[in-house]
């Protein structure tokens, strides 16, 4: 009963802390982004990007602190954690909740370069978020549908060319690119709808991951296959995080080499497409078994 009475206070404390930290650090990133917008000089822009990246890491630490601000959060991180902040990585991760992003931020600010996301072009015009992400050199992608390409054939491959040009900026700042390969958050309903062959995962979508490797494959030092597991009793919702009811997070990190066979033209090369789909499906089989093993260990500890 006493614990339930504390929930509103935990919610207020965590929400206010997260909102204030985001407002202050986000505003600072935008302020230093203004001269970057006005002075298109490579040396100046790289210096500003480095400063913005430092602020981004500070925000990551602030979000990490929020995990344990009002609750005894326990982290169970296993696998290849001997990573380096001065290298380039691509993450393959399962997706259960929006909390996953904060979990990856917690890992990044301690073990690896700060993450970048491929964003839709429309997000650039969102107040605060658009300019902040632009300052952090996050690529804004404009993907063309098959219908548009059929009407305007000259746009074929234009999205890849644009993204490759924007990703050139990553050569100067170590970066981690995140791919949630399932394309959406896992729910039992989606699992049944998609008739997933996996017990705890949705089928992975290979196109986005292959596109990332085609665009930046030569830049990455390694692929990080990250598996996030929450105990069945701890629902990984933002509400449970803010009210202090999310107590345990299990994370497994596996480092994979960026083999040349993983880099190719997914949309034009049928042989490569099949090879990459088979490779990603095998990774998902391993991930599914890892989740099963972790949940069994959790059940054994709590029995």
Automatic annotation (TrEMBL):
Signal peptide: none annotated. Keywords: Acyltransferase, Membrane, Transferase, Transmembrane, Transmembrane helix. GO terms for molecular function: acyltransferase activity. It comes from the Bacteria. The chain crosses the membrane at residues 12-35. Residues 89-231 form the Phospholipid/glycerol acyltransferase domain. GO terms for cellular component: plasma membrane. PANTHER family: 1-ACYLGLYCEROL-3-PHOSPHATE ACYLTRANSFERASE-RELATED (PTHR10983), ACYLTRANSFERASE YIHG-RELATED (PTHR10983:SF15). This is Acyltransferase. It comes from Pseudidiomarina aestuarii.
């Amino acid at each position: 009963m006493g614990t339930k009475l504390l929930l509103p206070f935990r919610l207020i404390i965590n929400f206010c802390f997260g909102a204030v930290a985001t407002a202050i650090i986000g505003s600072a990133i935008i302020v230093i982004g203004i001269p970057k917008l006005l002075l298109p000089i490579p040396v100046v822009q790289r210096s500003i990007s480095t400063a913005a990246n430092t602020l981004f890491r500070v925000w990551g630490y602030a979000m990490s602190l929020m995990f344990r601000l009002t609750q005894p959060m326990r982290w169970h991180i296993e696998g290849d954690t001997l990573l380096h902040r001065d290298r380039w990585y691509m993450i393959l991760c399962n997706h259960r909740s929006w909390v996953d992003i904060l979990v990856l931020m917690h890992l990044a600010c301690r073990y690896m370069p700060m993450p970048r996301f491929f964003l839709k072009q429309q997000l650039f015009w969102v107040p605060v978020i658009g300019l902040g992400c632009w300052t952090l050199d996050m690529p804004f992608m404009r993907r063309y549908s098959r219908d548009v390409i059929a009407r305007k054939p000259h746009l074929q491959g234009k999205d890849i060319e644009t993204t490759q040009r924007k990703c050139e900026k990553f050569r100067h700042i170590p970066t981690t690119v995140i791919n949630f390969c399932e394309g959406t958050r896992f729910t039992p309903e989606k699992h049944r709808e998609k008739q997933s062959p996996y017990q705890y995962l949705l089928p992975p979508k290979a196109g986005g991951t292959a596109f990332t490797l085609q665009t930046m494959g030569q830049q990455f030092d390694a692929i990080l296959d990250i598996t996030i597991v929450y105990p069945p009793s701890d629902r990984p919702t933002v509400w449970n995080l803010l009210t202090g009811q999310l107590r345990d997070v299990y994370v497994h990190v596996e480092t994979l080499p960026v083999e040349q066979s993983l880099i190719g033209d997914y949309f034009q090369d049928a042989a490569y497409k099949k090879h990459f789909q088979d490779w990603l499906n095998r990774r998902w089989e391993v991930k599914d078994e890892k989740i099963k093993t972790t949940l069994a260990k959790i059940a054994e500890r709590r029995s």
